[in-house]
Design brief:
Layout (H helix, E strand, L loop, with lengths): L6 H31 L3 H14 L2 H16 L10 H21 L7 H14 L5 H22 L2 H15 L4
Helix pairs in contact: 1-2, 1-3, 3-6, 4-5, 4-6
Length: 172
Amino acid sequence: MEKKHLHEISFLRAIACLSIVLLHSIVWGMEYVGFLLNLPDFSERFLDSVTIFLYYGTPTFIFITAFILGYSYKEKRSISKGFLSKRLKFILIPYIFMGFMYASPYALLSFEQFALKSFLNIFIGDFHAYFVLIIFQFLFIVCSFQKMVRSCIPKKSHFVFVFNKRCIFIPF
């Protein structure tokens, strides 16, 4: 069965992308050009407020990933075997490469500084692509949870659902 294209998700992706571009433009402008303009305090506070509002772009991309994953696999009993390997190949390897690239200026200081910054970039997400680690954690959780749900007996799955639903609605 052919899945229909979700135009709403494309629209949401475009809005999130524009918000991130605008966010980085404002931050860059305030940091590198703002002192030339000698902006009044009100303008600086206003632009700071706008940047805080625009931070929703990154969580929006994480939401889109989760939504598309759920939408794509809602009818299937399991995630395909090449699911994680494909994402490792096309997302994680470039992420690691960019982690090294962002650490490369530290190589001018010392190898130890380069190694430390590379480690922080790749394993902690200490550069602009930190959200890739969040998405991978989510993908691993989804794969693990799907395996766990498939292995459960339906009565036990129902019990877990009822138990969790009751815990959520317990009045204090």
